[in-house]
Structures are given as structure tokens and as C-alpha cells.
Amino acid sequence: MTELSLRQQLLETSRKLVELGLNRGTAGNASVRYGEGLLITPSALPVSEMNTSSLVHLDLSGNVLSGGKPSSEWRFHCDILKARPEINAVIHTHSVNATTIACLRKDVPPVHYMIALAGGDSIRCTPYTVFGEQALSDNALEALHDRKACLLGNHGMIALGADLYDALAVTEEVEFVCEIYWRMLQAGEPKILTAQQMHEVQAKFVEYKKRS
Predict the structure, then answer these.
(1) Which CATH number is 67's domain given?
(2) Dihedral sign, CA of 89, 94, 98, 99?
(3) Active site residue: 3, 19, 36, 73, which one?
(4) Active-site residue, 142 included
(5) Domain residues for 47?
């Protein structure tokens, strides 16, 4: 894709996150791989005020190649794209349900089979770390091992995808599963799917994703 096409897609995804209530104001950020670097949303600018020129071009070391000041969370965007060549998009939100579970510092167990879309049978939660610091990125990379999503303790969620559409789909499903888990915690003891049941789901997803 051209740089302009990717910029338009990143801007549209950022707007969609606000429309869906997954982000608000200046909270959250998103990025997409471009060439040997990435395009990322800017720091402290509401999505309503962004345009394609607002997006910042970085190399994978975090050096600005064009644009202004990148999101304060540029470190984990760069580190994830550097460590995970199969991943081309990163979304970070402060969505209500995922952030609620993150503030409890709980991993999300397999309470619903759709958790498999996040790449495993759980969604891990990191310890709390100050936003924008290298320690936050290090903790996120560990929690994202073999996963496409994690929770950041007392902070929010990270979702990954092969492209921005995939990352947005993962974001929506993680928020859904976190809402289900939160409701279950209020109602009583959650009934957890077994490892065998989750293995069966993951095998079914492989077939489900086949186009023919």
C-alpha cells in the first residue's frame, strides 16, 4: 500500500475506535507498519483534530522521520513491530471493560471461546508501569508472547493484527470478553473452559478462516 493509503487507513481506524467507544479524547493510540518503520498517531491530539498529515513516521528505533511528536507510547509500538514480523498493526485503548480488568490486574481466563482470537487460552495482564517508559514496553512484550492481545496493569489494552482491520477486530473481541468476565465476576464464580475445549476451538478457527 502507498504511504497515503496507510495514513488514511490509520486515521479511519483511530476514528472508528472513538465511534465504538473504545477510546475517547486523546486516550489511546495506533500504528501501522510502513516500509522499514511505522506510522503512528501523534501525542496529545484528539482524533477529531487529526488529519493524515498529523500522523508521524518513525523508524523502528523511534527516530522521527517526518511529522511532529509521536504518541508517548511509541516505544511499545516500535518494539512490538520489531519483535513480531507477522504483526503489522498495533492498537492501544483505554476501553472501559478491558481497563476495568486491567485495574484489577487480572489475567482473563477462557470464560468465552472467542478469547481464542487473541491467540491463546488467556489474555495476560502486566504489572503496573508508568506510561511511556521502556519497562512498560518490556512487560507488554512478555505478556504478548504467543498472543495478539494483553492488558496493561492499571492502564488499558494492547491488540495486534496482521493489518489495521485485524487489529481492530481483536480489540473489539477483547473488550467483549472483558465485559463478559466482569459481569461474571459480579454474578458469581466464572465457569472456565478447559484446555481441551480451547484446543478444539482453536482448531475450528483454523478451518473457519479458510476462504475455500
Answers:
(1) 3.40.225.10
(2) positive
(3) 73
(4) no
(5) 3-208
